[in-house]
Design a protein that fits this description.
about 550 residues, alpha/beta, 24 helices, 10 strands, about 55% helix, about 10% strand
């Protein structure tokens, strides 16, 4: 990528910051500051800013740096408890402040296409959280214009004879408002590295006429994030298997994928019939039709996450999710799963990319991730100083503790920031993800004598329910009052996914690795429960609501 293109990207980001982000978020800032500090809130704003951040008695609203600094400075008092704001939005503000600094210092090397797209995407997310709908829509338009303009050209520049897809297909993909956009946004927020994985995928696609590319790794190694980032970059067709949200059946997969394919390629099917989701015949027919329409150099890529979480009871005896035995020309699948045997019989053996074998590359990505988190967090910096460590010492030691597991870092870094490890040295942090779960289980008093059976029962209900459950449903099932249930939900917040379904807040386990921990025989026995009894009670009492 030449310097002229990078300069154009920098100017695009600069203009979006000044012309869209700041005017869009200004009313939100004024409302929140006035709500907390009253009509003279500018006097309080001066306490954390410098004189040169003001023009007379007012802020330099035209300077994005001033606006973002104000949000960070007053985060705990004025912004943290605002509706739709939380830790991830605080990270967006820090990220955009870094982007503004890169613009200010003319750091052109940063402004490749991925960095530029992510900057626009972060602006859109922050504006959406601040309920600045019009500004968020403007950013979305610029983001999609940028993607359409650069994506195909970049691929042609890198591989002139191998074009990933045509521009119309990419544009069409941006219009598909599928159910997984929130998940993609969440998993790609703060994404780093993994270029060696994307390079391996691309090498496979350009060297094979069709086929299956399978990423295998242990829980917590970042498989879902990798796939989400791949989808964000390429706009390919995608389906995420999410067992804790009951999105794990073959018919759901077929309905989602077939609808995307029909919409994207303008196939002549006004609606899906029951035949389309009964087995894989209609799906295979669509793939054949699309393959016949592909021009030289074009291809169809379908991404599927977490094959190992598929409920196979409704289609046992055949390929998982009815995936085709033979693929037509130009059709590819990029899949993720744990390293376990799954029913997938195909004519050409799939290419299995074993992520666990790339320890050196993963370590570099882990260290990059830690460095970025340190830059964003005053609390982390203070903890590191208290440990009498340099930043690089901390990066090296925590990376070793993590065993290259991103889920471990997510939990441990959050807990350091919240002060849970205030009196603990870095040497005494848990080693690896399972040890972290054991440590947290102990710190939450789950092995105390006598056993806190109401808390244990509530956690196991969340783990065993096959759909997100409301607080009231948990109360009804356990016989505990709403306050007790809410206390447990608050204590275990970082392990739960909270979402609004039909106007009601519902909860599910965030990551399958925590369910694995709860299923360990020693943990089950120490907790004084049996999974059989938990499931039987759920089935007896809440079968319809929980989907059992």
């Amino acid at each position: 990528m030449n310097q002229g293109d990078r300069k154009t990207n920098k100017e695009l980001v600069d203009k979006a910051l000044e012309d869209i982000l700041v005017p869009g978020i200004k009313p939100f800032i004024q409302r929140q500051m006035k709500k907390i500090y009253g009509k003279n809130w500018l006097q309080d704003a001066r306490l954390g800013l410098q004189d040169y951040h003001f023009e007379g008695d007012d802020l330099k609203w035209k300077d994005p740096q001033v606006v973002l600094k104000l949000i960070i400075d007053k985060w705990n008092d004025a912004f943290r408890d605002a509706p739709q704001l939380g830790y991830s939005q605080r990270s967006l503000v820090s990220e955009l402040l870094e982007v503004r600094n890169a613009v200010k210092h003319n750091d052109l090397q940063k402004f490749d296409n991925d960095y530029t797209y992510r900057a626009l995407d972060s602006m859109g997310r922050l504006l959406t959280a601040a309920d600045a709908k019009k500004a968020a829509q403007e950013i979305e338009q610029r983001k999609e214009e940028f993607r359409r303009k650069t994506w195909v050209d970049n691929q042609v520049e890198e591989k002139p004879k191998q074009v990933i897809s045509n521009q119309s297909a990419v544009a069409e993909s941006a219009k598909v408002n599928h159910q997984f956009q929130a998940l993609i946004d969440e998993k790609t927020d703060g994404f780093v590295g993994r270029e060696f994985v994307f390079k391996a995928i691309e090498n496979f696609l350009v060297s094979q006429p069709n086929g299956y590319f399978i990423i295998e790794a242990d829980p917590g190694m970042g498989k879902t994030a990798i796939l989400a980032e791949y989808v964000r970059r390429t706009g390919c067709v995608v389906h995420f298997i999410i067992r804790s949200q009951a999105i794990n059946r073959a018919d759901q997969f077929l309905e989602s994928i077939c609808a995307q394919l029909i919409s994207r390629y303008n196939l002549g099917y006004p609606s899906l019939t029951s035949e389309a989701t009964r087995d894989g015949k209609f799906f295979a027919k669509l793939l054949e039709e699309i393959s016949a329409k592909l021009k030289p150099g074009e291809r169809l890529v379908i991404a599927i996450d977490a094959l190992d979480e598929v409920n196979q009871t409704d289609h046992s005896g055949g390929n998982i999710l009815y995936l085709p035995v033979a693929l037509p020309k130009g059709v590819y699948f990029v899949l993720t799963q744990r390293a376990i045997a799954l029913p997938l019989t195909v004519n050409t053996p799939p290419h299995r990319f074993k992520l666990m074998q790339y320890q050196a590359e993963s370590l570099q990505d882990i260290q990059t991730y830690i460095r970025r988190e340190i830059e964003k967090s005053p609390q982390l910096k203070a903890w590191i100083d208290g440990q009498r460590l340099t930043g690089e010492d901390f990066v090296t030691l925590l990376a070793e503790k993590s065993e290259n597991n991103f889920m471990y870092l997510k939990y441990v870094l959050e807990e350091i920031e919240r002060g849970f490890y205030r009196d603990l040295s870095i040497d005494n942090l848990p080693q690896g993800l399972q040890a972290y779960y054991e440590d947290h289980w102990r710190r939450m008093g789950m092995i105390a004598k006598p056993l806190p059976r109401p808390k244990i029962k509530i956690v196991y209900v969340l783990a065993e329910a096959r759909k997100p459950v409301s607080r009231q449903l948990i109360c009804d099932f356990t016989g505990e009052d709403a306050l007790t249930v809410q206390d447990v939900l608050d204590e275990w917040e970082q392990f739960l996914r909270s979402q609004s379904i039909d106007g009601q807040r519902r909860y599910s386990i965030y990551h399958a690795s925590f369910q694995d921990f709860l299923h360990r025989l020693d943990i089950v026995q120490a907790a004084g429960v049996t999974l059989k009894d938990i499931n039987a009670m759920i089935a007896d009492n809440l079968s319809e609501e929980l989907g059992l």
